[in-house]
Backbone:
């Protein structure tokens, strides 16, 4: 692994506390008030394997610096290696071309949140040189919102890794993560927002709407008493939105048009990347979840006022934060009043 150049220098991210922080809830956020963001670099690898998940393997060893949450990955490290080489077909790429790997092992075909925060931010960071390489992308990015999102960038030739295969690449370039997952390099995040809004000709002066995003149409993580929540929300002139009903570009436009945004913890909040500074968001969070501060971090980085509400609920599974919550309606009213008045 050879370092070619630096993409962004290291920095210390100083985050503002939530606007409605309570002392009893400091333990949810205070470990995120200051966070070290390492430098990000472009690296070169000579003759390596790239799996369908974007994992790089050299001499039968996984390059851990390019694996999100490697501490979890270690539990099935050997099983992953065996599965890659025994169950998949090897494809040798053209030895005379330079390839650029631009996706992470965590997004997957359903993971739009990590796709935006971990993959799109890296593509943007290298947008000016994309045409110098054959860019390697996952097969699932040919479809749906991912395919729509890729139209924002200036690609030259691309190669899609199909399921059931792995690649042998003689000349591979790969950027390290712009920031550890759930964290953000401020310069990258700010420029990424401006780039996308300019590409889509979105005028931020129109950001005056009150938006509530419902997860009724999703398969998991619901609000148990959503009918009550919606009744209150509508009384404050919030528009109820189902993100599944819109294209990727429309989703960006909807979030960018919001002055006030309320929703449960979920992928829709990743679109905070495209919300305007000084707008306000209220995240409905599951009681006891002190770990998932991804959206708080985005909001702070982009100068969006962040509010939260801790909610009791029914735990289902650790996998993909699977739970349902029940929202205290009176507390929600208090938090909306606070958000709107400020």
Residues:
């Amino acid at each position: 692994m050879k370092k070619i150049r630096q993409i962004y220098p290291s920095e210390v991210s100083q985050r503002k506390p939530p606007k409605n922080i309570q002392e009893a809830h400091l333990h949810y956020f205070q470990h995120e008030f200051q966070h070290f963001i390492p430098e990000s670099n472009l690296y070169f690898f000579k003759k390596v394997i790239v799996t369908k998940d974007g994992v790089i393997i050299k001499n039968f060893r996984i390059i851990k610096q390019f694996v999100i949450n490697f501490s979890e990955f270690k539990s099935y490290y050997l099983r992953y290696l065996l599965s890659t080489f025994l169950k998949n077909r090897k494809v040798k790429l053209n030895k005379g071309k330079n390839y650029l790997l631009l996706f992470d092992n965590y997004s997957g075909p359903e993971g739009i949140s990590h796709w935006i925060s971990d993959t799109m931010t890296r593509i943007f960071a290298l947008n000016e040189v994309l045409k110098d390489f054959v860019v390697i992308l996952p097969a699932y990015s040919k479809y749906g919102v991912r395919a729509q999102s890729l139209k924002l960038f200036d690609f030259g030739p691309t190669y899609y890794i199909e399921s059931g295969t792995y690649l042998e690449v003689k000349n591979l370039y790969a950027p390290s993560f712009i920031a550890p997952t759930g964290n953000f390099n401020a310069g990258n995040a700010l420029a990424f927002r401006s780039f996308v809004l300019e590409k889509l000709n979105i005028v931020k002066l129109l950001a005056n709407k009150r938006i509530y995003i419902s997860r009724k149409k999703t398969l998991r993580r619901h609000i148990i008493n959503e009918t009550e929540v919606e009744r209150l929300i509508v009384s404050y002139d919030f528009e109820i939105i189902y993100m599944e009903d819109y294209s990727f570009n429309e989703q960006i436009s909807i979030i960018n048009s919001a002055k006030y945004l309320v929703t449960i913890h979920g992928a829709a909040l990743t679109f905070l990347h495209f919300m305007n500074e000084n707008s306000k968001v209220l995240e409905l969070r599951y009681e006891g979840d002190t770990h998932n501060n991804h959206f708080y971090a985005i909001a702070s980085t982009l100068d969006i006022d962040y509010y939260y509400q801790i909610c009791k609920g029914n735990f289902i599974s650790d996998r993909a934060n699977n739970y349902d919550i029940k929202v205290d309606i009176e507390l929600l009213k208090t938090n909306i009043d606070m958000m709107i008045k400020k």
Q: What stands out?
A: The longest strand covers residues 305-317. The CA atoms of residues 99 and 134 lie 5 Å apart. The chain has a mean pLDDT of 94. The chain has two domains: 38-182, 198-341.
